[in-house]
């Protein structure tokens, strides 16, 4: 859809205003075009096998780099951030087994998709006929690259998008649309000489600044890996049984993180009360109560039991954990 500069500016202002009303913490726009800078990086990352068993990362290479292959006539990528950071008093204590903060509440896929649907409806009602698709970490879209291009932050040495004044505890989502909008520009990198994330990673998954070997990450082992956990990493997970927040927890920029206002991301009240013995004795019923609507269902009860046994040194059966659907399924 063609538009004048004045119309583009008005449409863009409307989208950002409506995104804020829907609870998104930030919204940025970039032009839908081939990601030339990311192409060789992705190719090298895959060539080195850093995707591990995440074979879906090898699929749709061209689509990952060009949104026009995902949406016919795509002209703009609308990137959005949604804060999930729990209030300090709602976080799990350090002396228990832990799940990543992003999985405390309702599965973010469902929460964000609902918001994106509303934003798309509002966009169509305001502008007219608009074609596009919503994406929430389940299709071949390089979320961080688009958010970076739209000025929502820079990609830090731990490979997470970092936003000045906010940190990195948020989800990234997109609407790719066939409408020309006013684009934002990238901001500079503020990591400086800091290496706290590299120094803190217990499995040395951050092999060099800005490069994370996914196959060495605690999140990969505890969520994505379907096999039994390798003895070579025994004792390196600390108390993490689903995901890992270490490289974010140590990042100085996350001192600016503010508690989420999204009620659906509030943790089940029983989660904070779980102690190590409770985790070791967790039943299928307790698992369902705590994580019925959580992303922890991704690894399933058997997978979580495997992780708990590995971290605590308990004996465990060799059954393969049942897992939910992989990403890139759209």
TrEMBL record:
SUPFAM superfamilies: alpha-helical ferredoxin
EC number of this enzyme: 1.17.99.6
UniProt GO cellular component terms: cytoplasm
A Gene Ontology BP annotation from the UniProt entry: tRNA queuosine(34) biosynthetic process
Residue numbers annotated as active site: 137
Binding sites annotated in the UniProt record for [4Fe-4S] cluster 1: 191, 194, 197, 251
Top-level taxon of the source organism: Bacteria
Cofactor annotation remark: Binds 2 [4Fe-4S] clusters per monomer.
Matching PROSITE patterns: 4FE4S_FER_1, 4FE4S_FER_2
Entry's localization field: Cytoplasm
Binding site for [4Fe-4S] cluster 2: 201, 217, 244, 247
Location (main, coarse): cytoplasm
UniProt catalytic activity: epoxyqueuosine(34) in tRNA + AH2 = queuosine(34) in tRNA + A + H2O
Subunit structure comment from the entry: Monomer.
Family: Belongs to the QueG family.
PANTHER family, A to Z: EPOXYQUEUOSINE REDUCTASE (PTHR30002:SF4)
Protein name per UniProt: Epoxyqueuosine reductase
Organism: Hymenobacter gummosus
Taxonomic lineage: Bacteria, Pseudomonadati, Bacteroidota, Cytophagia, Cytophagales
């Amino acid at each position: 859809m063609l538009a004048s500069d004045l119309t583009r500016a008005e449409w863009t202002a409307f989208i950002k205003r409506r995104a804020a009303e829907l609870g998104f913490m930030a919204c940025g726009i970039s032009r839908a075009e081939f990601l030339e800078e990311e192409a060789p990086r992705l190719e090298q990352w895959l060539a080195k096998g850093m995707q591990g068993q995440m074979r879906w990362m090898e699929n749709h290479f061209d689509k990952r780099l060009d949104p026009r292959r995902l949406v016919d006539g795509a002209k703009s990528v609308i990137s959005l951030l949604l804060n999930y950071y729990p209030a300090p008093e709602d976080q799990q204590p350090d002396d228990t087994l832990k799940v990543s903060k992003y999985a405390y509440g309702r599965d973010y896929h469902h929460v964000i998709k609902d918001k994106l649907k509303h934003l798309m409806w509002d966009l169509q009602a305001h502008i007219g006929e608009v074609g596009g698709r919503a994406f929430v970490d389940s299709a071949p879209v390089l979320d961080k690259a688009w958010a970076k291009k739209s000025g929502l932050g820079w990609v830090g040495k731990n490979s997470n998008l970092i936003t000045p004044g906010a940190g990195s505890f948020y989800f990234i989502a997109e609407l790719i649309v066939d409408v020309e909008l006013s684009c934002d520009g990238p901001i500079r990198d503020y990591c400086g000489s800091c290496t706290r994330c590299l120094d803190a990673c217990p499995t040395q998954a951050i092999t060099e600044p800005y490069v994370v070997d996914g196959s060495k990450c605690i999140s990969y082992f505890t969520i994505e890996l379907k096999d039994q956990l390798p003895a070579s990493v025994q004792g390196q997970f600390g108390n993490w049984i689903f995901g890992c927040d270490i490289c974010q927890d140590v990042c100085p920029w996350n001192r600016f993180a503010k508690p989420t206002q999204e009620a659906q991301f509030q943790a089940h009240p029983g989660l904070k009360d779980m102690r190590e013995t409770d985790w070791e004795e967790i039943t299928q019923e307790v698992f369902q109560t705590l994580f019925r609507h959580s992303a922890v269902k991704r690894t399933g009860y058997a997978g979580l039991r495997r992780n708990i046994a590995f971290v605590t040194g308990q004996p465990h059966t060799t059954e393969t954990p049942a897992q939910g659907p992989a990403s890139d399924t759209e």
